[in-house]
Every structure is written in structure tokens, then in C-alpha cells.
Amino acid sequence: MAQVSRTAPERMRAIAIDRFGGPEVLTMHTLPVPVPGASEVLIAVHTAEVGGWDADMRGGWSMSGKKPRFPLVLGGGGSGTVAAVGSRVRRFKIGDPVYSYAWDNPKGGFYAEYVAAPAETAAPVPAPLDLAQAGAIPIAALTAIQGIDDALHLKKGERLIILGASGGLGVFAIQFAKLRGARVLAIASGADGVALARKLGADAAIDGRDGEVAGAARAFAPDGADAIVAFTGGKALTECLDTLRRGGRLAYPNGIEPVPKKRRGIRTNPYDGIAGRAQWERLARAITAARLQVPIAAEFVLAEAARAHERLAQGHILGKIVLGARPFAPLRTGFQRTDHWSPGPSFNCAFSWSCRNEIDLRIRRAYVKGWRAHHASIVPEAPANPRGTGGRRVCALDA
Ligand SMILES: NC(=O)c1ccc[n+]([C@@H]2O[C@H](COP(=O)([O-])OP(=O)(O)OC[C@H]3O[C@@H](n4cnc5c(N)ncnc54)[C@H](OP(=O)(O)O)[C@@H]3O)[C@@H](O)[C@H]2O)c1
To answer: What CATH number has the domain bearing residue 89?
Structure first.
């Protein structure tokens, strides 16, 4: 029997699809809060990671090839606080801040207020990240570090080319490769992508859409680079491969297009990112050691999921897109550092319309800190008068 938080409601808001299609099929649903099994945790979602794979699933793609059951709640990764733990779970307790990579979860994804996921798919949020940053990265950061460590076995001093360096996985691959002591040529997208790659620590960076890829790769490693990690395929990858030294290595996560052809003399390792306790522990050490920077290109609230997918379709996203599962979008860390306000264990308050901005501010602060603010939707107690003042709203925040 799961230990269930007193504050977990029976029903929740979730973005789900009832059929495959474009961004418009992502609509708000009211669904039962999933019940965690004995080895699972219930997570009150703070932030959901958004990736191209979500758009693929929305359009009908499935890694397992299995037909999903509708309504289907998307979102393979995200962060939140533990709201309930299954009877066999010892690693977590209610209130712990966690992030999780729970792919193809039959109990639903992170585009929701609650997720029930196997405990081994979750991990404590590592310093120095907050919940908003942690929610942005589970799939991207795990897959990026596994490219560097497990697929390439990158060693200190090796020369690595990262293709797609300013995208969702690339921004983390740069930082992990530098942490391992490699020299990095980042092939990024656009002048802004190049600037970001340099800021994240790349030794050299070029615009792969505009620049001379082969020339830059030869200038970077005149006798050939040791390894490539590719987060996109096509002409730029072919040019990079032409400059790799004999016996060099290529790694790429399954999903890049077009799929690169195998070449004689190059060890090619397509791979999938996986989540498990050892993977989380290594990631946490790396995040802390690298003081990982998490570039967020755009933030949306749950109700704006369709807009988030429209933004995804436009491309040229520097870093990640996220969805805040709570009523207000996640705020940036600078905000958190200046915040000294805290609610009591169960904080109920009523506010007049005239101080609406103040309550918004307080809820946002609680939200950023990862306190359960799921009752924080402002409920009109009385209709607003035409001047927009004098009505009252109530909310409750649970620390
Ligand atoms: N198998 C797994 O476990 C797994 C897990 C996660 C991701 N993946 C796959 O990994 C891939 C990367 O994911 P992601 O989230 O990082 O995608 P992403 O954010 O779209 O990153 C790809 C990047 O490549 C850039 N790019 C394209 N052509 C370029 C060129 N010629 N020069 C320089 N940059 C170029 C894109 O820039 P623009 O957008 O500006 O064109 C984009 O920034 C995807 O195919 C995804 O499906 C697989």
C-alpha cells in the first residue's frame, strides 16, 4: 500500500492526446491522479522536459512499436517533489525533490500535475540545480553523458567534434566532454549557437550551417580528430567523418537523421540513453563537478503545451524547452536567490484583487523553491468588480 500524501488530490490537470496529429491535438484533460505501485513514487510535477521525441510520439511514433492507449499523456522526463512512495521504496520520502526519466510510462508522462514512475527512474536533484533546471534535463543530460562516457569512452586530451552542439543534447555534451578533459570543437547552429557553445566551454566553435565544416575540423585536429558525437546527421556529419583519424570513433543517439552509413576504419556506436541508479549517480557527480549550466530557450506553462510544440517545430532551439506543470511558469534562478519568504507547513491566505500581483509573486516563489503549490491556483471567492479591485481570491500552499 502506497504512503499517500495528504495533499495529493484524486484528479489532476494533464495535457493528453486523444489521437495522433499536430500540436493542436495536445489538449487539457482532467484525469485521475495515477496510483503508485509498490516500487513506484508519485511525483508532484514541477517541470516537464520537452524534446523532439515528444513531437514524434504526438505524431504516432513509438519506440516499442506498441500502440498507445488514449488519452496519452506525453513527457518522458521532468522534475518535481515526491508526493507518495510505494511500500517497497526506501530511497525516497514525501517532499524529496527529484528528477526522473521514465520513458513510455504506461501510467502517463510528465505533461501532467502528477506522475507515478518506478523509483529507479528517479533521482534526487543534484546541486547546484533547482527543480526548474533539473526538470529540463533528464533525457538530454543522461543521453549526452552516456555518449561521452559509454559510447565513446572519451579520454583526457582527446580531440572531440560535437555536431549539433547548441541543441538540446549538445549543450550538455560540451560541458561533460570538457569535464573529462577533452579538447572540443563545437559545430553549432547560427552565430548565437556558436556564442553559446563558446560560453559553455568549447575550445573552438563554428556555425555548421554556414561555416566550412571540413576546414574547421582540419584546423582543429590537423592529423584527424579522435572522436565525433553527432546529434544530427547529413552533410555536416559526412564532412566531419572525412576528417576523422583512422581508428577514430563515432557515437550518435538513435534518432538522428539521416542515419549515418558505417565506414571502414571508423568505430561507430549508435546508442540509447538509459536511466538507472548507476547512471543517475554518475550524472549527479558530473553535474556538480561541471557546475552544469542549463540553457533554457523557452518556458511554457502546461496549458501552453501546443504552443511549446509549435516552437519545437520552428527549430533553432538553443538548449531546452520546458513546460511548467504548476499554474505559473518556472522562474529563473536569480529570482530564487533573492527570495526570503516562506510559507508555513500549510499556508492559507485570502487576498484582495488589489494585491493580486503580490500573491502571484508569493506563489511563484513557493513554486520555484519546489514546495508543493498545487493548490495555489487562485480561486475567485467573489467575482471581480469592473474596476478589477475588491474581489477576493484564496489559495493554499503546502510547504
Ligand atoms: N536514442 C535516445 O536515447 C535519444 C535520446 C535523446 C535524443 N535522441 C535523439 O538525439 C538527437 C538530438 O536530440 P536534441 O534534443 O539535441 O535535438 P535538437 O535540439 O534538435 O538538436 C539538434 C541540433 O543540431 C543542429 N544542427 C542541424 N544541422 C546542423 C549543422 N549543419 N550544423 C550545426 N548544427 C546543426 C540543430 O540546429 P537548428 O535547430 O538550428 O537547425 C539543433 O541545434 C535527436 O535526433 C533525438 O531524437 C535520442
So the answer is: 3.90.180.10
In a domain, 250, yes or no: yes
Among 189, 229, 235, 238, say which to mutate for ligand 1: greatest number of ligand atoms within 8 Å of CB: 189
**Hey, how many other C-beta atoms are within 10 angstroms of the C-beta on 248?**
24
Q: 171 and 57: one domain?
A: no
pLDDT, tens digit, for every residue of 261-276?
999 999 999 999 999 9
Would residue 340 count as lying in a domain?
Answer: no
**Closest Cα to atom 45 of ligand 1:** 256
Predicted confidence at residue 3, as pLDDT, reads 52
Domain check: are 72 and 163 in the same one?
A: no
For the ranges 8-12, 53-57, 123-127, which has the lowest average pLDDT?
8-12
- Long-range contacts: 373-380, Cβ < 8 Å, 24+? 373/326, 373/327, 373/397, 373/398, 374/7, 374/9, 374/44, 374/113, 374/326, 374/398, 375/7, 376/326, 376/327, 376/328, 377/327, 378/327
Q: Do 110 and 174 reside in the same domain of the chain? A: no
Residue 4 lies in a domain: no
The number of folded domains in the chain is 3
Question: Residue 182's domain spans which residues?
Answer: 140-271
Enter the pTM of the model. Answer: 0.84
**Which residues on adjacent β-strands are paired with residue 230?**
163
Q: Which residue has the higher pLDDT, 370 or 332?
A: 370
Query: Are 164 and 192 part of one and the same domain?
Result: yes
Same domain, residue pair 298 and 236: no
- All three cell numbers of 161, joined, read 567534434
CA nearest 321: which of 305, 341, 334, 333? 305
Residues 148 and 213 in one domain: yes
Site to probe by mutation for ligand 1, drawn from 148, 169, 196, 235 as the one with most ligand atoms within 8 Å of Cβ, is 169
- Give the model confidence (pLDDT) of 209-264 as tens digits: 987 899 999 999 999 999 999 999 999 999 999 999 999 999 999 999 999 999 99
Residues with CB under 6 A from ligand 1: 51-53, 139-140, 143, 164, 166-170, 187-190, 208-209, 231-232, 236, 253-256, 272-273, 315-317
Q: Is 311 contained in some domain?
A: yes
pLDDT digits (tens, 9 = 90+) for 208-221: 998 789 999 999 99
**Residue 307 in contact with residue 300, Cβ under 8 Å?**
yes
